[in-house]
């Protein structure tokens, strides 16, 4: 019998809202890495998974790991998951929906076993709120939790290793959190967190790549002076220079499809209404799926900053803060996702993720792919974040289709982890 996707979707939405109630704050959702409410979230998800026959554990960094057994052993293992931590004042769906949908896909199997195991992963840390370091959960799966990371301290001075012990976990077991050789692929459902699918009128998209990211800090250096007594033509105004450059960045950001460029922070010194600014320190964030294009765009923006400064008799200092390459998703899996979307009766769409996700860390070791769900209003990281039940139903139908597509593709489940 065909599963009732709408009922499964309604359950998924109710579950997301229930998990949002497990919070460090009253009246809003904040659930950071290894915080007490994460215990409640694990207990709740375990309650949904165990009746399906899954074996649930928490690994040594705090990821929820549940294995839905295969029809026969030995078998490879498909991972499906997302993250369970949140930003402060969060919505109910970012990350969480991806884990809840993994459970929903297993429920849609109605007891059917597949020729491979399905491992549901609820990552403990993706947002980087507590330690200022993102992706700690997925790093553990690719074997990248080292002493430097374990010694990192949160804002209360608590080292990561102590936070792990305080949560009741055993540091010596961290090696066991890593992917096993039979792990053959990783799949992640996530809300788009942007307006593209809504504008196109499509519920789902296959993610082709996660954009690379450059971050720079620029300081325009002028001379501070009295705002009343210094004539306009005798000023070295750092803020005016920064402003001229910021509008150029906006224009340059529009010169290539898919390119985005943002100046999100401006700090002015001395920062008084009646003083011409001596220094304007600004951030630059540039993203694109092609690293070469992104590098050229950044170079061009820095050259323009130097030009603006020179014309005005100022100087500018620029420092690179981050240069993170783009991560392509597995092309075979992406094609299979497109096919599964098509099978639900929706036209498939391909897009690039401008935000980072656990899938880009997993892609270091296993073929990885993502499915985006339309985000009403493009609103995310806010309590107003939402999803449409119909879209969630399509996502579960697509997920079930994928599980069956993989089951009938022996080449799929004979693939193994590059560990
Ligand atoms: Zn997320």
The helix-strand sequence is: HHEEEHEHHHEHEEEHEEEEHEEHEHEHH
What share of the residues lie within helices? 25-40%
Q: Which consecutive residue ranges, at least 5 long each, have pLDDT under 50?
A: none
| Largest sheet, strands/sense/barrel | 9 strands, mixed
Extended strand count:
16
Report the bound ligands by name, code or SMILES. zinc ion
- Look at the structure and give the mean pLDDT: 96
* Number of discrete helical segments: 13
Shape estimate: elongated
| Radius of gyration over C-alpha positions, nearest whole angstrom | 24 Å
Output the structural class: alpha+beta
Report how far apart the termini are: 39 Å
Strand percent estimate: 15-25%
Fold topology:
Elements (H helix, E strand, L loop, with lengths): L4 H16 L16 H13 L5 E4 L5 E5 L8 E7 L12 H13 L8 E7 L12 H6 L5 H5 L8 H7 L16 E9 L4 H5 L3 E7 L1 E10 L3 E2 L11 H16 L6 E3 L3 E4 L5 E2 L2 E10 L2 H21 L3 E10 L2 E2 L2 H13 L6 E4 L4 H5 L5 E6 L15 H19 L2 H4 L6
Parallel strand pairs: 3-4, 3-5, 5-16, 6-15
Antiparallel strand pairs: 1-2, 2-4, 6-14, 6-16, 7-12, 7-13, 8-11, 9-12, 10-12
Bound molecules: zinc ion.
The site of zinc ion has 5 residues, from loops.
